[in-house]
Specification:
- This protein is of the alpha/beta class and 373 residues long.
- The chain folds into 2 domains: 238 residues, Alpha/Beta hydrolase fold, catalytic domain (Rossmann fold, 3-Layer(aba) Sandwich), CATH 3.40.50.1820; 94 residues, Orthogonal Bundle (Rna Polymerase Sigma Factor, Chain: A), CATH 1.10.1740.
- The chain has 12 helices and 8 strands.
- The protein has an 8-stranded mixed sheet with strand order 1-2-4-3-5-6-7-8, with helices on both faces.
- β3, α1 and β4 form a beta-alpha-beta unit.
- α2 crosses α3, α4 runs antiparallel to α8 and α5 crosses α7.
- The longest helix is centred in the middle third of the chain and has 16 residues.
- The N terminus is likely disordered.
- InterPro entries: AB_hydrolase_1, AB_hydrolase_fold, HAT_MetX-like.
- This is Homoserine O-acetyltransferase.
- Pathway: Amino-acid biosynthesis; L-methionine biosynthesis via de novo pathway; O-acetyl-L-homoserine from L-homoserine: step 1/1.
Length: 373
């Protein structure tokens, strides 16, 4: 069992962003696309938007072999590949490429989401006045994130995706893509996600946001030039979230009530470890912005409700739930499948919500089958 202690406040150089990539850091495998100004759903325009992305394979002459992978809340564009300079963690879906998505056949694209902290424009990015956006970063929605990805697709010469694939928050974007751009998606694969944020999901987010915003080093979101960062609050938020990502059965069988030599229960050490890891690679400001974007998610908004929105879907919708998921329970995926008159695929896993990442064989085969042409 990992013996990592809880994260402690780090003294940072002025302007340094705790746990996120910033301009001047090694680019790693990232590429960057300048999108210009991006109109936002809630009004106004976000200027000088940059999206960081990675690609695998090549776009063919017909430009019909492009696949977009949409990451979850604390993911990024680094789907597969090793850790290295500027890239603190290995790929979050290692094994998907090339085993189930062969770059000899597919041009795979993954973008760090708008509002993120791994190269795309977010709260830690430089605003036009040269200072970090911080609390001035506007409220964004899942639809804004998809609009940014569509602008990236334009720059890459992709008129239509063979598939858009995503789980959790990425599944929200995979679902919005064919609704916002019905002629630009052939197949949408939505894993362990939902058509709208439920009251319980919003409730789980509330103490996470409160933990970050109550940290004395939050400074109203304007901590970037203070030499401090709200890593303690971010760590608490991660502990809360991580419990919802795993199943009660897994926690019970893996940890039980086993104590450790330092007096903590093993499960406490486990949560501390994940809190420390996230604080070292992720920005609290992005966590707040992206969590609020997830709370805004509702594909039925201004479309007559979920059933009406999905009834006329042009793209083929492939929906899969994890049978032990307590954060995005299978009933929510069943609503999507029923509204789009398609089958519901069930991923069997003891791990809970994270099963969409951990059950690579089941999910990989589902994705490979969805891409058969």
């Amino acid at each position: 069992m990992d013996q990592d202690r809880p994260p402690v406040e780090a003294d940072l150089s002025p302007g340094q962003v705790a746990g996120g990539w910033r301009a001047g850091d090694p680019a790693g495998a990232r590429k960057f696309a300048g999108l210009g100004g991006l109109p936002l759903e809630y009004g106004g325009t976000l200027p000088d938007v940059t999206i960081a992305y990675e690609t695998w394979g090549r776009l063919n002459a017909a430009a019909d072999n492009a696949v977009l992978i949409c990451h979850a809340l604390t993911g990024d564009a680094h789907v597969v590949g090793p850790a290295g300079p500027g890239q603190p963690t290995p790929g979050w879906w290692d094994g998907l490429i090339p085993t189930y998505l062969n770059p000899d056949d597919w041009f795979v694209v993954a973008a760090n989401v708008l509002g993120g902290c791994q190269g795309s424009t977010g709260p830690s990015s430089q605003a036009p006045d040269g200072q970090a956006w911080g609390s001035r970063f506007p409220a964004i929605t899942i639809r804004d994130q998809v609009a940014a990805e569509a602008s990236l697709a334009d720059q890459l010469g992709i008129d239509r995706w063979a598939a858009v694939i995503g789980g959790s928050m990425g599944g929200m974007r995979a679902l919005e893509w064919p609704l916002l751009y019905p002629d630009r998606v052939a197949t949408s694969v939505v894993l362990a996600s939902t058509g709208y944020a439920t009251a319980e999901q919003i409730a789980w987010c509330a103490p996470q946001l409160a933990a970050i915003e109550s940290d004395p080093h939050w400074f109203g979101g304007d901590y970037y030039a203070t030499g401090k960062a709200p890593v303690a609050g971010l760590g608490i938020a991660r502990r809360i979230a991580h419990v919802t990502y795993r199943s009660e059965y897994e926690l019970a069988t893996r940890f039980g009530r086993d104590p450790q030599g330092d007096g903590r229960f093993a499960v406490e050490s486990y949560l501390d470890h994940h809190a420390t890891k996230l604080a070292q690679r992720f920005d609290a400001g992005s966590y707040v912005v992206l969590t609020r974007a997830m709370n805004s998610h509702d594909v039925g908004r201004d479309r007559g409700g979920l059933s009406e929105a999905l009834s006329g879907l042009k793209a083929r919708l492939v929906v899969a739930a994890v049978d032990s998921d307590r954060l995005y329970p299978p009933r929510l995926s069943a609503e999507l499948a029923e509204a789009s008159t398609g089958p519901l695929h069930l991923v069997k896993s003891p791990y809970g919500h994270d099963g969409f990442l951990l059950e690579l064989d089941q999910v990989g085969h589902l994705i490979a089958e969805a891409l058969i042409r």
